[in-house]
Amino acid sequence: MGDASRFERFMERLHRGEKIEATDWMPDEYRQLLLKLIHMHAVSEIMGALPEKEWVPKAPTLKRKLAIMAKVQDEMGHGQLLLRVAEDLAAPLGKTREDLVTDVITGRVKFHNVFHMEAPTWADAGVIGWLVDGAAIINQAALLDTSYGPYARVLKRICAEESFHMQHGENIILALARGTEEQRAMLQDAVNRWWESLLFFFGPVEVTDAARRMIEYKIRTKTNEELRQQFFNKYVPRIRSLGLTIPDPELRYDEQEKRWIYTQPDWKKFGEIVRENKGPKSRERIALRRFAHMDQRWVRAALARYSEPEFVG
Amino acid sequence: MEQSEPRIDYGIYEVFVQKSHGDFHIHVGSVAAPSPDLALQTARENFLRRDRAVNLWIVPRKHVYATPYDDPDFFARETDRKYREVGGYTENGRLWRMFKEKALHLEDIVRSLRDLEGNQKPTE
Ligand SMILES: [Fe+2]
Ligand SMILES: [Fe+2]
């Protein structure tokens, strides 16, 4: 069969709402777009565990320590599940798991802007759990209907675990919101610190070529702006109900336009942070990742020497 | 049966059914078959006479590594894992009410995103 008619048949499958499996023929462009998306997603889960990991030894109570540790474990687990999906997509391109894992150390794959930022107080740990996870959950829930079967299945599992992350984050900030003046001020500071990063997290307002292609391929079904608007819908009223303010004097819901008007984040600044790993914590966290990966190389090498025994029936 | 007749040994295959592309393959039982191809056929006849599926896996039983049933320690967990579960945070609903708001759940988000689809169906 010619490539053109294969492509046509592939697109027809997508339009019928069929899911694509790893063993199916797929256009190169589809594979590349998916791989880029899932690779960045996987690496961001792993890098995303690092800001919260910093709070494991400093969590205020034993229960909080157990809970945040459980969450860090989940995020690492999400990274593992996603890497497996990416690995199968990358194999025909001659890329291995080792490549996918080391790409973040060598700067060949980016990770989300929010994970380049500092988390100086316990309120930051809370706001990460509440709002950063909240934003990530909106993104991931929107991908549940993706056309790629293996990604859809893994996302279902990830989202189930994210439900705990939502409640966990809310619980921390609700405690602080009911706390002393000092605690409330700490919470407000953290919201101020994270707000702009959170808006950038959803990506540019304009639909880039890559984003348009992903929508055509039904890899994703929503635009960045639709998801950012969802975030406002869900979180602005909740932030305000706690008596907190949002550091954007322009922010309002326009009844006519049926959408939130807001001050644009500094696209240039965050773009550089992500592309060039220039955020306040980028270097430190990549160094930690490199250390973890390299320092344990010998363990992986030793384990790989295990050879499968003869199976006995 | 004649003593001299050679024994016929079928292999045992464990069967995994994937009901839809949204589901993982789930173990449903096993079949005896002379070859992997026939194991697939037999599995379809045994397990999919009514249920629908999109995929079937059969795995030679000898390739399954399992935990022993008499080692409960393998699955031991500390007594309380509530801190890890949504159910450990039911107080959130009450706490949000103090601020005249509601706890947010994953289902709320999935629902709003799917509603969005209804309103603004992307033009094809
Ligand atoms: Fe996650
Ligand atoms: Fe999470």
From TrEMBL, chain A:
The domain of life is Bacteria
* InterPro entries for the chain: Aromatic_CoA_ox/epox, Ferritin-like, Ferritin-like_SF, PaaA, PaaA_PaaC
Q: Name one GO cellular component term.
A: cytosol
Question: Which GO-annotated molecular functions does the record name?
Answer: phenylacetyl-CoA 1,2-epoxidase activity
Its GO biological process annotations read:
phenylacetate catabolic process
Read off the PANTHER family from this record: 1,2-PHENYLACETYL-COA EPOXIDASE, SUBUNIT A, PHENYLACETIC ACID DEGRADATION PROTEIN PAA
Protein's UniProt name: Phenylacetate-CoA oxygenase subunit PaaA
> Can you name the source organism?
Marinithermofilum abyssi
Q: What is the lineage of its organism?
A: Bacteria, Bacillati, Bacillota, Bacilli, Bacillales
TrEMBL record, chain B:
**Cited Gene3D superfamilies:** Phenylacetic acid degradation B
* Pfam families, sorted: PaaB (PF06243)
Q: Which domain of life is it from?
A: Bacteria
- Name of this chain's protein: Ring-1,2-phenylacetyl-CoA epoxidase subunit PaaB
Query: Which source organism?
Result: Marinithermofilum abyssi
Which lineage is the organism of this entry classified under, starting from the top rank? Bacteria, Bacillati, Bacillota, Bacilli, Bacillales
